[in-house]
Amino acid sequence: MQRRELLRFGVGATLFLGATSLVGCTQQAPSAGYQALREDDLPLLRALIPVVLAGTQATPEQVLHSLDHKLAALSPAMLKLSRQLFDVLSLPLTRGPLTGVWGNWANAGDAQIEAFLQRWRDSSLDLLRQGHASLLQLLLMAWYERPEAWAACGYPGPPRI
After folding, report:
1. Using CA of residue 109, residue 97, residue 70, residue 36, what is the dihedral sign?
2. Domain of 15, in residue numbers
3. What is the mean pLDDT of the chain?
């Protein structure tokens, strides 16, 4: 690892660890109508869903309810990790430097969100690449578990018993 890479990693790790230490400061109660998703998670996810699932018939509300169902079924440790990822992406202290989205997620354009996703996908930091993969997996699983998604991919649905 070269000096510049080590410094970049140190800054990224410091920001990430600083943000996760603030996780106790964010609300942990689910938002009204949800089992696991919190009010602070919703703007981020509502901004990401149309970009990640572009070209599908997915609506943010459908995906949010499926995602909430998936998160509620996770072990407490996995739910905590997912919430930490959402917190890092939502907290203003870390959102700007780590994502390039300096304002609220609700005001972020598709190009900004695509740039953020590409930045994390191609990052030299393994932690950011893992965060990218986790986000995509969560959103894709939440959409493709829905019957509305099955026809577009040729899946006839589960067999009737």
Report:
1. negative
2. 3-26+36-147
3. 88
